[in-house]
Amino acid sequence: MHILHVVQGYTPAIGGTERLIQQVSENLVARHQDQVTVYTTTAYNCELFWRDDQPELPAGTEIINGVTVRRFPVFNKLNTLRFWLAGSAYKLRLPFNDRLRALHNGPLIPRMPQIIADAGADVIVASSFPLLHMHYALRGGRRADTPVVLCGGIHTADDYGFNRPMIYKAIRQANAYIAYTPFEKNYLVQERAIPPELISITGVGVDVEPFAGGDGQDLRRRLGWGNAPVVAYIGQQVPHKGVDMLMQAMEQIWQEVPDACVIIAGSETTYSAFIKSWADGLPAALRARVALINNFAEEEKPDIYAASDIVVYPSGHESFGIVFLEAWAACKPVVGARIGAIPTVVADGKDGLLTEYRQTADFTRAIRALISNPDLRQQMGNAGYQKVCQHYTWDIVTDKFRAVYIKAKEGL
């Protein structure tokens, strides 16, 4: 089967969707000998779509682990005008303001629908909303009379990004839709009137073995942290992930546990300067207990998790949260927000703790509770590990994705 994946970024670009599509693509090649092509952009992160000062990858075609990857440059001019039009139309709730928001978000690649139509794929799969390439994939599929599967990754708490009629119209027009959680499917059926038979639930995945073999002691030695308790945030450094809450929480925790340490690790964005400014402004003794690990290589990730005692991810804009799976693969407990799809991923009190979204005091209490109870940390980490092995390995998830592709291709 020739599968075309259309996605906003692809390795070495970093992000949950980017990682998901890479793993599914490579597993389809390795496990099923499918021909997989990826159409993507030159972006390291989505800021390139509306900023012209961001680094980017070269355009062109390459083969990565058996997957053919073709990167396209994006139009990212007139950014101030696009931002103003989208924001003003949204604020005033003008007709078709969702289209202006889509033009602002991008990626703007005007020829992409026809390029997708000409790909000769058996099935076209696009991820994820609210970005414009989702609509390119649908248009390209129509032109080529090729089935289209959409993986939306709906973030219900993000009104600006996802309260767009054009998104739900596109889902109804697709041949199939992949939801990552029961929460996402229920939302689409109950709130957006999407036919339930259109939607399949797959979850997302993680490679267990690399995380099980992570070595955190070397990192701890290099940082001079010894056996001190370590709290970690691992993910993109963007405002909506809640990194600011971790900063505030640590300032409270240090008053009671002065040897506690914190890791903030992930791909840099323009928001990273704010994080660095916070760390640099701390007293010297506390600054030594903060590690900012930017743009780390994928093979370094297991060691970062292994060096951590608690993994926090207070984001409210998640369709699943691969970070939770990675933490569990390393047998670490997690702290997440009680919002959207996250309570269907994290079992509160069993494999992690959930706190009220954007409630720093509640978030701080959860971290403090885990710092003070090593036995509870181990119990929750082990429960998460068992969950991953039973439901969320990439082999399991890839086979679920492929079953949806086959169903769409055969018109079932």
Biggest pleated sheet: 8 strands, mixed
What is the fourth-level CATH superfamily of the largest domain? Answer: Glycogen Phosphorylase B
Portion in strands: 15-25%
Highest CATH level, the class of the largest domain? Alpha Beta
Pairing-aware structural class of the strands and helices?
Answer: alpha/beta
Q: Please estimate the helix content.
A: 40-55%
Kindly identify the CATH topology of the largest domain. Answer: Rossmann fold
CATH architecture assignment name of the largest domain: 3-Layer(aba) Sandwich
Categorize the overall geometry. Answer: globular
Q: What is the count of distinct domains?
A: 2
- The average pLDDT is 96
| Poorly predicted residue ranges | none
Terminal CA distance reads: 16 Å
Number of strands: 14
Report the oligomer: single chain
Strand order of the largest sheet: 3-4-2-1-5-6-7-8
Number of helix segments?
18
The whole-angstrom Rg is 21 Å
Write up this protein.
β1, α1 (16-32) and β2 (35-41) form a beta-alpha-beta unit. The protein is globular. It is an alpha/beta fold and 412 residues long. It has two domains: 2-205 and 393-409, Rossmann fold (3-Layer(aba) Sandwich); 208-391, Rossmann fold. The strands form two sheets. It has an eight-stranded mixed sheet, with helices on both faces. The longest helix is centred in the C-terminal third of the chain and has 18 residues, at 374-391. The chain is built from 18 helices and 14 strands.
